[in-house]
Protein backbone atom coordinates (compact mmCIF):
# COMPACT_ATOMS: atom_id res chain seq x y z
CA UNK A 1 0.00 0.00 0.00
CA UNK A 2 1.24 3.48 -0.87
CA UNK A 3 0.50 6.53 1.28
CA UNK A 4 1.35 10.23 1.15
CA UNK A 5 3.82 11.56 3.67
CA UNK A 6 4.32 15.25 4.42
CA UNK A 7 7.93 16.13 3.62
CA UNK A 8 7.92 19.87 4.26
CA UNK A 9 5.80 22.97 4.83
CA UNK A 10 6.08 26.67 3.98
CA UNK A 11 3.97 29.81 4.21
CA UNK A 12 3.97 33.51 3.48
CA UNK A 13 1.99 36.55 4.62
CA UNK A 14 2.26 39.78 2.61
CA UNK A 15 4.03 42.64 4.37
CA UNK A 16 1.19 45.16 4.45
CA UNK A 17 -0.73 44.94 7.73
CA UNK A 18 -4.19 46.29 8.54
CA UNK A 19 -5.02 46.29 12.26
CA UNK A 20 -8.45 46.45 13.86
CA UNK A 21 -7.61 50.03 14.88
CA UNK A 22 -6.95 50.85 11.20
CA UNK A 23 -10.36 49.40 10.32
CA UNK A 24 -12.06 51.73 12.80
CA UNK A 25 -11.06 54.55 10.42
CA UNK A 26 -12.52 52.80 7.37
CA UNK A 27 -15.89 51.40 8.52
CA UNK A 28 -18.30 51.79 11.42
CA UNK A 29 -16.71 49.23 13.73
CA UNK A 30 -14.56 48.97 16.84
CA UNK A 31 -11.40 47.03 17.48
CA UNK A 32 -13.10 45.50 20.52
CA UNK A 33 -16.10 44.27 18.50
CA UNK A 34 -13.83 42.57 15.95
CA UNK A 35 -11.59 41.03 18.60
CA UNK A 36 -14.43 39.75 20.77
CA UNK A 37 -16.63 38.37 17.97
CA UNK A 38 -13.88 36.86 15.80
CA UNK A 39 -10.53 36.67 17.64
CA UNK A 40 -8.94 38.61 14.77
CA UNK A 41 -6.41 41.32 15.68
CA UNK A 42 -4.91 42.12 12.29
CA UNK A 43 -4.76 40.90 8.72
CA UNK A 44 -2.09 41.03 6.01
CA UNK A 45 -3.07 42.43 2.61
CA UNK A 46 -1.40 42.32 -0.78
CA UNK A 47 -0.12 45.63 -2.10
CA UNK A 48 -0.90 46.99 -5.54
CA UNK A 49 0.87 44.85 -8.13
CA UNK A 50 1.31 41.92 -5.73
CA UNK A 51 -0.45 38.77 -6.94
CA UNK A 52 -1.78 35.49 -5.60
CA UNK A 53 1.00 33.71 -7.50
CA UNK A 54 3.60 35.91 -5.76
CA UNK A 55 2.35 34.65 -2.38
CA UNK A 56 2.11 31.06 -3.63
CA UNK A 57 5.66 31.16 -5.00
CA UNK A 58 7.26 32.27 -1.72
CA UNK A 59 5.28 29.71 0.33
CA UNK A 60 6.14 26.98 -2.20
CA UNK A 61 9.86 27.75 -2.23
CA UNK A 62 9.88 27.59 1.57
CA UNK A 63 8.05 24.24 1.53
CA UNK A 64 10.42 22.81 -1.11
CA UNK A 65 13.41 23.94 0.94
CA UNK A 66 11.98 22.37 4.10
CA UNK A 67 11.29 19.17 2.15
CA UNK A 68 14.83 19.13 0.77
CA UNK A 69 13.72 18.59 -2.81
CA UNK A 70 13.84 20.59 -6.05
CA UNK A 71 10.84 21.78 -8.03
CA UNK A 72 12.07 19.50 -10.82
CA UNK A 73 11.31 16.52 -8.52
CA UNK A 74 7.57 17.32 -8.53
CA UNK A 75 5.01 15.31 -10.52
CA UNK A 76 2.05 17.46 -9.51
CA UNK A 77 1.39 21.09 -8.59
CA UNK A 78 -2.05 21.70 -7.12
CA UNK A 79 -3.14 25.19 -6.08
CA UNK A 80 -6.31 25.69 -4.05
CA UNK A 81 -7.47 29.24 -4.68
CA UNK A 82 -10.62 31.30 -5.04
CA UNK A 83 -8.69 34.32 -6.23
CA UNK A 84 -6.62 33.25 -9.27
CA UNK A 85 -4.51 35.96 -10.91
CA UNK A 86 -6.17 35.26 -14.25
CA UNK A 87 -9.19 33.27 -15.45
CA UNK A 88 -6.58 31.19 -17.23
CA UNK A 89 -3.86 29.98 -17.21
CA UNK A 90 -4.42 28.50 -13.78
CA UNK A 91 -2.41 29.86 -10.87
CA UNK A 92 -0.79 26.40 -10.72
CA UNK A 93 0.52 26.82 -14.29
CA UNK A 94 1.74 30.33 -13.50
CA UNK A 95 3.44 28.92 -10.40
CA UNK A 96 5.03 26.07 -12.36
CA UNK A 97 6.59 28.61 -14.71
CA UNK A 98 7.86 30.69 -11.74
CA UNK A 99 9.43 27.59 -10.24
CA UNK A 100 11.22 27.03 -13.53
CA UNK A 101 9.91 23.57 -14.28
CA UNK A 102 7.95 22.06 -17.17
CA UNK A 103 5.91 18.97 -17.85
CA UNK A 104 4.43 17.94 -14.50
CA UNK A 105 0.64 18.17 -14.06
CA UNK A 106 -0.51 21.54 -12.70
CA UNK A 107 -4.04 22.69 -11.98
CA UNK A 108 -6.15 24.80 -9.64
CA UNK A 109 -8.89 23.58 -7.35
CA UNK A 110 -11.64 25.88 -6.11
CA UNK A 111 -13.48 24.93 -2.94
CA UNK A 112 -13.18 28.32 -1.21
CA UNK A 113 -12.22 27.96 2.48
CA UNK A 114 -12.22 24.15 2.25
CA UNK A 115 -9.86 24.37 -0.75
CA UNK A 116 -6.78 23.12 1.07
CA UNK A 117 -8.44 20.00 2.51
CA UNK A 118 -9.94 19.31 -0.92
CA UNK A 119 -6.52 19.72 -2.55
CA UNK A 120 -4.84 17.46 0.02
CA UNK A 121 -7.53 14.87 -0.65
CA UNK A 122 -6.95 15.02 -4.42
CA UNK A 123 -3.14 15.01 -4.17
CA UNK A 124 -3.33 12.06 -1.75
CA UNK A 125 -5.34 10.10 -4.32
CA UNK A 126 -2.78 10.87 -7.05
CA UNK A 127 -0.05 9.50 -4.79
CA UNK A 128 -1.98 6.49 -3.47
CA UNK A 129 -2.83 5.39 -7.03
CA UNK A 130 0.73 5.83 -8.25
CA UNK A 131 -0.08 8.74 -10.58
CA UNK A 132 2.40 10.97 -8.76
CA UNK A 133 5.28 10.40 -6.35
CA UNK A 134 5.81 13.99 -5.25
CA UNK A 135 3.18 16.71 -5.07
CA UNK A 136 3.20 20.38 -4.11
CA UNK A 137 -0.12 21.37 -2.54
CA UNK A 138 -0.69 25.10 -2.10
CA UNK A 139 -3.47 27.23 -0.61
CA UNK A 140 -3.09 30.84 -1.78
CA UNK A 141 -5.52 33.73 -1.65
CA UNK A 142 -5.93 37.45 -2.21
CA UNK A 143 -9.44 37.54 -0.72
CA UNK A 144 -8.97 41.26 0.07
CA UNK A 145 -9.65 41.91 -3.62
CA UNK A 146 -13.14 40.43 -3.27
CA UNK A 147 -14.09 42.64 -0.33
CA UNK A 148 -16.42 45.62 -0.25
CA UNK A 149 -14.50 47.90 2.09
CA UNK A 150 -17.75 49.69 2.95
CA UNK A 151 -19.35 46.49 4.28
CA UNK A 152 -18.38 46.11 7.94
CA UNK A 153 -20.01 42.69 8.17
CA UNK A 154 -17.42 41.16 5.82
CA UNK A 155 -14.36 43.38 5.34
CA UNK A 156 -13.15 42.97 8.93
CA UNK A 157 -13.01 39.17 8.65
CA UNK A 158 -10.61 38.32 5.84
CA UNK A 159 -6.93 38.61 4.85
CA UNK A 160 -4.42 37.42 2.25
CA UNK A 161 -1.70 34.77 2.44
CA UNK A 162 -0.37 31.45 1.22
CA UNK A 163 0.73 28.11 2.63
CA UNK A 164 2.16 25.01 1.00
CA UNK A 165 3.09 21.42 1.73
CA UNK A 166 5.19 18.90 -0.19
CA UNK A 167 3.89 15.33 -0.22
CA UNK A 168 5.85 12.22 -1.14
CA UNK A 169 4.88 8.58 -1.66
CA UNK A 170 5.67 6.41 1.35
CA UNK A 171 5.04 2.87 2.62
CA UNK A 172 3.48 4.24 5.79
CA UNK A 173 0.97 7.03 6.49
CA UNK A 174 1.32 10.03 6.27
CA UNK A 175 -2.15 10.96 5.36
CA UNK A 176 -4.38 8.42 7.08
CA UNK A 177 -7.67 9.51 5.51
CA UNK A 178 -9.40 12.45 3.87
CA UNK A 179 -13.10 13.26 3.88
CA UNK A 180 -14.66 15.89 1.62
CA UNK A 181 -18.27 16.97 1.13
CA UNK A 182 -20.37 19.69 -0.47
CA UNK A 183 -23.94 20.93 -0.44
CA UNK A 184 -24.70 23.38 -3.23
CA UNK A 185 -28.03 24.47 -1.81
CA UNK A 186 -26.66 27.41 0.20
CA UNK A 187 -25.34 29.83 -2.42
CA UNK A 188 -27.22 32.80 -1.01
CA UNK A 189 -25.55 32.46 2.39
CA UNK A 190 -21.99 32.90 1.16
CA UNK A 191 -21.01 33.94 -2.37
CA UNK A 192 -19.37 36.30 -4.80
CA UNK A 193 -22.12 36.63 -7.43
CA UNK A 194 -19.95 37.86 -10.33
CA UNK A 195 -18.87 35.33 -12.91
CA UNK A 196 -18.33 34.64 -16.57
CA UNK A 197 -21.58 33.87 -18.32
CA UNK A 198 -23.83 35.37 -20.98
CA UNK A 199 -22.38 38.79 -20.37
CA UNK A 200 -24.21 38.83 -17.02
CA UNK A 201 -22.15 39.77 -14.03
CA UNK A 202 -23.38 40.14 -10.48
CA UNK A 203 -21.67 41.91 -7.63
CA UNK A 204 -17.89 41.37 -7.58
CA UNK A 205 -17.89 41.46 -3.78
CA UNK A 206 -18.09 38.74 -1.17
CA UNK A 207 -21.57 38.55 0.37
CA UNK A 208 -22.28 36.59 3.53
CA UNK A 209 -25.11 35.99 5.98
CA UNK A 210 -22.59 35.55 8.79
CA UNK A 211 -24.92 34.41 11.50
CA UNK A 212 -26.40 31.57 9.45
CA UNK A 213 -22.99 30.54 8.12
CA UNK A 214 -21.71 30.44 11.68
CA UNK A 215 -24.41 28.04 12.86
CA UNK A 216 -24.07 25.79 9.82
CA UNK A 217 -20.28 25.71 10.15
CA UNK A 218 -20.31 24.70 13.82
CA UNK A 219 -22.76 21.83 13.25
CA UNK A 220 -21.05 20.59 10.11
CA UNK A 221 -17.54 20.68 11.55
CA UNK A 222 -18.75 18.68 14.55
CA UNK A 223 -20.08 16.03 12.15
CA UNK A 224 -16.88 15.86 10.10
CA UNK A 225 -14.84 15.30 13.24
CA UNK A 226 -17.09 12.34 14.19
CA UNK A 227 -16.97 10.95 10.64
CA UNK A 228 -13.16 11.09 10.56
CA UNK A 229 -12.70 9.40 13.92
CA UNK A 230 -15.29 6.71 13.18
CA UNK A 231 -13.79 5.92 9.76
CA UNK A 232 -10.47 5.18 11.42
CA UNK A 233 -11.71 3.48 14.58
CA UNK A 234 -10.12 6.26 16.62
CA UNK A 235 -11.24 8.17 19.67
CA UNK A 236 -10.97 11.86 20.49
CA UNK A 237 -7.97 11.29 22.74
CA UNK A 238 -5.94 9.94 19.79
CA UNK A 239 -5.71 13.45 18.30
CA UNK A 240 -2.59 15.37 19.31
CA UNK A 241 -3.32 18.55 17.35
CA UNK A 242 -6.37 20.12 15.82
CA UNK A 243 -5.45 22.39 12.89
CA UNK A 244 -8.72 24.09 11.98
CA UNK A 245 -9.58 26.50 9.21
CA UNK A 246 -8.91 29.90 10.76
CA UNK A 247 -12.19 31.80 10.24
CA UNK A 248 -13.39 32.74 13.69
CA UNK A 249 -12.08 31.84 17.15
CA UNK A 250 -15.61 30.99 18.32
CA UNK A 251 -16.07 28.38 15.56
CA UNK A 252 -12.63 26.95 16.42
CA UNK A 253 -13.49 26.77 20.14
CA UNK A 254 -16.77 25.01 19.37
CA UNK A 255 -14.97 22.31 17.36
CA UNK A 256 -12.35 21.91 20.08
CA UNK A 257 -15.13 21.41 22.65
CA UNK A 258 -16.69 18.78 20.40
CA UNK A 259 -13.34 16.96 20.37
CA UNK A 260 -12.79 17.47 24.12
CA UNK A 261 -9.40 18.82 23.15
CA UNK A 262 -7.86 21.62 25.25
CA UNK A 263 -7.15 24.87 23.40
CA UNK A 264 -3.40 24.42 23.89
CA UNK A 265 -3.63 21.46 21.50
CA UNK A 266 -5.37 23.60 18.88
CA UNK A 267 -3.27 25.60 16.44
CA UNK A 268 -4.76 29.09 16.38
CA UNK A 269 -3.37 31.80 14.09
CA UNK A 270 -6.61 33.58 13.16
CA UNK A 271 -5.64 36.54 15.35
CA UNK A 272 -2.61 37.27 13.19
CA UNK A 273 -4.14 37.02 9.73
CA UNK A 274 -7.94 36.68 9.82
CA UNK A 275 -9.68 34.33 7.44
CA UNK A 276 -7.30 33.64 4.55
CA UNK A 277 -9.64 31.04 3.02
CA UNK A 278 -7.73 28.11 1.48
CA UNK A 279 -4.41 29.44 2.83
CA UNK A 280 -5.42 29.32 6.48
CA UNK A 281 -4.74 25.67 7.36
CA UNK A 282 -1.29 25.46 5.72
CA UNK A 283 -0.41 28.85 7.28
CA UNK A 284 -1.33 27.57 10.75
CA UNK A 285 0.29 24.18 10.13
CA UNK A 286 3.58 25.70 8.95
CA UNK A 287 3.74 28.03 11.92
CA UNK A 288 3.26 25.19 14.42
CA UNK A 289 5.83 23.00 12.63
CA UNK A 290 8.43 25.78 12.53
CA UNK A 291 7.97 26.85 16.16
CA UNK A 292 8.42 23.22 17.24
CA UNK A 293 4.93 22.58 18.62
CA UNK A 294 4.08 19.86 16.10
CA UNK A 295 6.50 16.95 16.22
CA UNK A 296 7.03 13.98 13.88
CA UNK A 297 4.88 10.99 14.81
CA UNK A 298 1.99 13.09 16.15
CA UNK A 299 -1.59 12.75 14.94
CA UNK A 300 -3.10 15.85 13.35
CA UNK A 301 -6.67 16.61 12.39
CA UNK A 302 -7.24 19.37 9.85
CA UNK A 303 -10.80 20.53 9.19
CA UNK A 304 -12.41 23.27 7.15
CA UNK A 305 -15.73 24.71 6.07
CA UNK A 306 -16.34 27.15 3.22
CA UNK A 307 -18.54 28.63 0.55
CA UNK A 308 -20.40 26.20 -1.62
CA UNK A 309 -20.96 24.94 1.02
CA UNK A 310 -17.88 22.75 1.06
CA UNK A 311 -16.29 21.05 4.04
CA UNK A 312 -13.83 18.33 4.86
CA UNK A 313 -11.01 16.94 6.96
CA UNK A 314 -7.54 15.45 6.64
CA UNK A 315 -6.21 13.06 9.27
CA UNK A 316 -2.42 12.92 9.31
CA UNK A 317 0.18 10.91 11.16
CA UNK A 318 2.93 13.48 10.85
N1 LIG B 1 -18.50 46.06 13.70
C1 LIG B 1 -19.48 46.40 14.56
N2 LIG B 1 -20.71 45.84 14.50
C2 LIG B 1 -20.95 44.94 13.54
C3 LIG B 1 -19.96 44.55 12.61
C4 LIG B 1 -18.71 45.17 12.73
N3 LIG B 1 -17.69 44.86 11.89
N4 LIG B 1 -20.49 43.62 11.80
C5 LIG B 1 -21.76 43.43 12.20
N5 LIG B 1 -22.03 44.23 13.24
C6 LIG B 1 -23.28 44.35 13.98
C7 LIG B 1 -24.48 43.88 13.21
O1 LIG B 1 -24.94 44.89 12.33
C8 LIG B 1 -25.46 43.56 14.30
O2 LIG B 1 -26.04 44.75 14.73
P1 LIG B 1 -27.60 44.80 15.17
O3 LIG B 1 -27.71 43.84 16.32
O4 LIG B 1 -27.79 46.21 15.53
O5 LIG B 1 -28.35 44.35 13.96
C9 LIG B 1 -24.57 43.04 15.43
O6 LIG B 1 -23.24 43.48 15.12
C10 LIG B 1 -24.59 41.54 15.58
O7 LIG B 1 -24.45 40.96 14.30
P2 LIG B 1 -24.37 39.43 14.11
O8 LIG B 1 -24.17 39.13 12.67
O9 LIG B 1 -25.50 38.75 14.83
O10 LIG B 1 -23.03 39.12 14.92
P3 LIG B 1 -22.35 37.75 15.21
O11 LIG B 1 -22.13 37.58 16.64
O12 LIG B 1 -23.02 36.61 14.47
O13 LIG B 1 -20.92 37.94 14.54
C11 LIG B 1 -19.78 37.31 12.54
C12 LIG B 1 -20.82 38.21 13.16
C13 LIG B 1 -19.69 37.62 11.06
C14 LIG B 1 -18.44 37.60 13.21
C15 LIG B 1 -20.16 35.83 12.79
O14 LIG B 1 -21.49 35.62 12.40
C16 LIG B 1 -19.29 34.89 12.03
O15 LIG B 1 -18.12 34.78 12.31
N6 LIG B 1 -19.87 34.14 11.08
C17 LIG B 1 -19.16 33.15 10.33
C18 LIG B 1 -18.36 33.86 9.32
C19 LIG B 1 -17.37 32.97 8.71
O16 LIG B 1 -16.54 32.44 9.38
N7 LIG B 1 -17.46 32.84 7.41
C20 LIG B 1 -16.54 32.15 6.64
C21 LIG B 1 -16.78 30.69 6.73
S1 LIG B 1 -15.54 29.95 5.79
The CATH architecture of the largest domain would be: 3-Layer(aba) Sandwich
Order of helices and strands: EEHHEHEHEHEHEEEEHEHHHEE
What's the shape? globular
Tell me the number of structural domains.
Answer: 2
From the alpha carbons, calculate the radius of gyration and give it in angstroms: 18 Å
Low-confidence segments, given as residue ranges, are none
Largest sheet: 5 strands, mixed
* Relative helix content: 25-40%
Question: Helix/strand/pairing class, anyone?
Answer: alpha/beta
CATH third-level topology of the largest domain = Peroxisomal Thiolase, Chain A, domain 1
What's the arrangement of strands in the largest beta sheet? 1-7-6-4-5
Overall average pLDDT: 97
Small-molecule binders here are: coenzyme A
Classify the beta-strand content into a percent band.
15-25%
Q: What is the number of E strands?
A: 13
Describe the structure.
Helix content is 32%, strand content 25%. It is α/β, with parallel strands linked by helices and 318 residues long. It folds into 2 domains: 170 residues, Thiolase/Chalcone synthase (Peroxisomal Thiolase, Chain A, domain 1, 3-Layer(aba) Sandwich); 142 residues, Peroxisomal Thiolase, Chain A, domain 1 (3-Layer(aba) Sandwich). The chain is globular and about 55 Å long. 50% of the residues are buried. The site of coenzyme A has 20 residues, from helix 2, helix 6, helix 7 and strand 12.
Amino acid sequence: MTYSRILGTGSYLPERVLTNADLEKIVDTTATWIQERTGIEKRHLVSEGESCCDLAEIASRRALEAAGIQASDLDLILVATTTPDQIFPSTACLLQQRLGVRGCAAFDLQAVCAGFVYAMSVADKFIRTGSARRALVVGAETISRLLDWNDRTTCVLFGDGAGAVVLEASDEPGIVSTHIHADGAYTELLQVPAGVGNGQTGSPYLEMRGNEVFRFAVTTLGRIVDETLEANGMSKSDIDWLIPHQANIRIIQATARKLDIPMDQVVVTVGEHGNTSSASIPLAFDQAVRDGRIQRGETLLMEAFGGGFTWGSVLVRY
